[in-house]
Every structure is written in C-alpha cells, then in structure tokens.
Write a structure and sequence with these properties.
The strands form three sheets. The protein has a five-stranded mixed β-sheet. A two-stranded antiparallel sheet has the order 1-9. Strands 3-4 form a two-stranded antiparallel ribbon. The protein has 431 residues and is an alpha+beta fold. It starts with a helix and ends with a helix. A hairpin with a 4-residue loop joins strand 3 and strand 4. The protein is built from 19 helices and nine strands. Helix 12 packs antiparallel against helix 13, helix 13 packs antiparallel against helix 14 and helix 16 crosses helix 17.
Length: 431
C-alpha cells in the first residue's frame, strides 16, 4: 500500500507535468518569456532580443503558431510582447485577435526582433528574452522546463547556485521525485479513484482536439486521410484505424497552428496527445469501465513522466517514443494485463523505437506519432501473448527500469552529436 504522503507527491508531480497548452510548447515558452519581460518593462518594447538554446530553436523553426497562419518564432515573440499574458502560462496567446495579428506582422516587418543562438550553455531548454524601450531593459529567463522562470541569466548561474536563485518561490519542485515502473503501476492501479479522477481531463481536451481537427485541413491531414473511405480498404473499420486516426488528427491540428488547446505531458502537447488518445479510443471500443479508463490514463501519463525524468525535457530522441511507451502500458492494462505483462510491453517498445530522432516540431510529427502508436499496439498485443524481447537482445535488460534507463542514456547522452548534426542540417538546407 502506498502511503498518503507519497500519493500526494505523485499527484502533485502529475498536475505539474500534465497541463493545458495551445500550440507547440517551445514557441509558446518563448512567447511566455517575452510576455513576462514585457510586463517587467511596463510598456511596449521598441526592440526584443531573444537568446535561445539549440533545442528551442530546432523545435520552433517549422511549426505553426496558433491562429496566425504563420510558422516560427518571430510571430510568437511579437504576439508575446503585444497581447501575451504570463498568467496564462502555455496558453499565453489565447487572447489573439485579427487586429493583434496584423500588429504583430508589422512589428516583424519593422525588424524589431533579434533572434540568436545562446552560446556557452549546456542546458537544452533555455529562453532568454530582453525587452528594450529607450534606456530601459528588462530580461526574463526560462530554463529546464517550459514555464520555469529563473531569477538569473545563464552566465550568472554557477554550480553552487541555490534553488532560490534557480526558480521562483512558487514554482513546483516535484520533478525529481524518485519513481520506478513498479511504483507507477501500483499508484495508478490502487490509488483511491477520487484522488486520480482529474486525469480524465486529458480525455476531454485531447479527444476534443481530434474531433475538431477532422472538421478542417491541418498539416498533412494524416488523421483525416486514414478516416476516409479509400483508407478503410487498407486499414479496415478497426480499433487500430480509429486509434491512429484520432491520435494523428489531434497532432495534425496542433502542429498546423490550430487554436485548439490540448493537455500536454512533460512540456509537450504531442506527448500528451500520444499518451491519451490511443488509451481513450481503445477503452471505448473495448467497452472498458470508467474506472479502468481513468487508471489506464494515469498509468500512461505517469509512465511517460517517469521516463522523461532521466531523459530530460528536450532531447535528440523523439518524444513520441516516450509517450507511446505510456500508451502501450495503458492499453496493456485495458487488455487485462498485469504488472509482468506491462513490463513486457515496455521492453518490446524499447527494442523497437529506440533511436527515432527529433528534428523539430512540425506537421510531419503526426507521421512519427503514427509509427509510435502502431508500435504501442503491437507491443501490447505481443505482451498479452506472453511474448517479450529478452535481455540477450540489444539494449533490453532483465530489469525493466534498467531497460528504461538504457533508452534514456542513449537519448540524453549518446545522441548528443546527432542533435548537433540535425540542427546543422536544418539551418543549412538548400542547393
């Protein structure tokens, strides 16, 4: 039995990592930081200087900004300064109007924004915005997570910096709470239902995003394409097809710049979608109970949070790998799987998807999510048949937690040079 204090800390961790977001979280984090710098300045900035980590630049280059029909950081920064409110967190631009958009375009045309790579830092998630008006300058800095404001610039931070210097007093601090897959499983399956019912909000947000996406044309329309009559001849009118369609369509909309909020996981809306929609669709079509769905969603989201603890908020490894492991675990539970079968699913996933690169947030992320969710279903099915990749194969270990840490070590450390090469390719394309 898990004691009350431990349950409360896990719940605080989940509520910290599973939050609403509109649009891709990297440009929204930059817009959020811009809004805070502007609020500190007390007036409209005449100029804005943005100094960003390579991973922030990579993830914001090709993604649509909600409600604008535009891609990339300049419009996100301009709108952050003009209409952004830091109290909205990752929904910072939800007050967007057509008039504000035109004003933002003019702000860009007047070349008031300077965006550069922040040199000399190792932190993968780093946003530094300086708002300038006359002789007045105010700088806001976000680091480590998408909404975590720090009180000093990176060059002023040292190894001995205290927690008070690294974050504001009200910032939650549960991300280092030690988890294991066993603890994740036990919490999700035996915690009092009323304590974890809040996770059902992820269904409301992310399944709504899927429904709204099917009404329009976003990104590559992958979800909508799978839903069309011609595709039924290939995929059939099956749980598989429905899961792929509802997951991909929500990603299509989010990456395509739709003004549709989703519930994110560990700073990523796509991870939130991927940890939610496959579980919800399977539960509905498999006729699972409401309690089983709630517990499966908690299992899925908390598994993703656990893996991200050692991987880091941003990495060279595509986030759909992490979230798909979560959804595979959730689906295995809905299939009637016990802890052993869930361990099998995790190992099957790690044996298959490890190494998928992150080359920025963009419409084609829906293709990667489709690959991840397809693997999640296959891994769950194999696990229920008692099939599991063994420790004599590849990076899989007998211990499931060691297998997870093998995956995250590759993503966080081994793929560092890959990350640098990906960014170099993305910033030097052309014949």
């Amino acid at each position: 039995m898990i004691d009350k204090e431990t349950r409360e800390r896990i719940i605080a961790l989940v509520k910290q990592e599973v939050v609403p977001a509109i649009g891709c979280t990297e440009p929204m984090s930059v817009a959020l930081c811009t809004a805070r710098a502007t609020e500190m300045l007390g007036c409209r900035p005449e100029r804005i200087e943005a100094r960003l980590s390579a991973n922030i630049l990579k993830n914001a280059m090709g993604v649509g900004i909600p409600g604008t029909g535009m891609i990339g950081l300049p419009i996100a920064i301009a709108l952050g300064a003009l209409i952004g409110k830091s109290e909205y967190q990752l929904e910072v631009l939800k007050d967007l109007t057509p008039e504000a958009l035109e004003e933002g375009k003019q702000y860009i045309a007047e070349e008031r924004i300077d965006i550069q790579l922040k040199k000399g830092i190792t932190e993968k998630l780093y946003v530094e915005i300086t708002a300038i008006a006359g002789e007045k300058r105010q700088t806001a800095v976000i680091a480590k997570s998408h909404t975590n404001f720090v009180s000093k610039r990176m060059e002023n931070l040292s190894e001995s910096s205290s927690e008070e210097e690294l974050s504001e007093p009200l910032e939650a601090a549960e991300e280092n709470f030690p988890l294991s897959l066993r603890l994740v499983y036990d919490f999700a399956t035996i915690a009092p239902l009323e304590e974890i019912r809040f996770i059902e909000e992820t269904r409301r947000y992310n399944m709504n995003a899927a429904r709204e996406a099917l009404k329009g044309n976003y990104g590559h329309n992958l979800g909508k394409t799978i839903d069309r009559p011609l595709s039924k001849g290939i995929f059939g009118n099956s749980i598989y097809a429905h899961i792929i369609s509802r997951t991909a369509s929500a990603c299509d909309a989010r990456m395509g710049g739709a003004m549709i909020p989703v519930m994110s996981n560990s700073g990523s809306g796509n991870q939130g979608i991927c940890a939610t929609n496959p579980v919800c669709v399977y539960a509905k079509e498999n006729e699972n109970t409401e309690e089983e769905l709630i517990r499966a969603l908690m299992l899925s989201h908390l598994t993703a949070i656990y893996i991200k603890q050692s991987l880091g908020t941003l990495s060279a490894l595509c986030g759909c790998v992490v979230a798909s492991i979560g959804s595979s675990v959730g689906i295995t539970y809905l299939m009637g799987g016990d802890y052993e079968r869930i361990c099998f699913s995790v190992k099957n996933m790690i044996a298959n998807l490890t190494g998928m690169i992150c080359d920025g947030a963009k419409p084609s992320c829906s293709l990667k999510i489709t690959s991840g969710v397809s693997t999640a279903l296959l891994s769950a099915l194999l696990s229920m048949e008692g099939k599991c990749v063994s420790s004599s194969e590849g990076i899989v270990d007998d211990c499931v937690d060691k297998s997870i840490h093998n995956l995250t070590a590759i993503g966080a450390n081994g793929m560092g040079p890959t990350d640098e090469m990906v960014l170099n390719i993305m910033t030097s394309k052309g014949c």
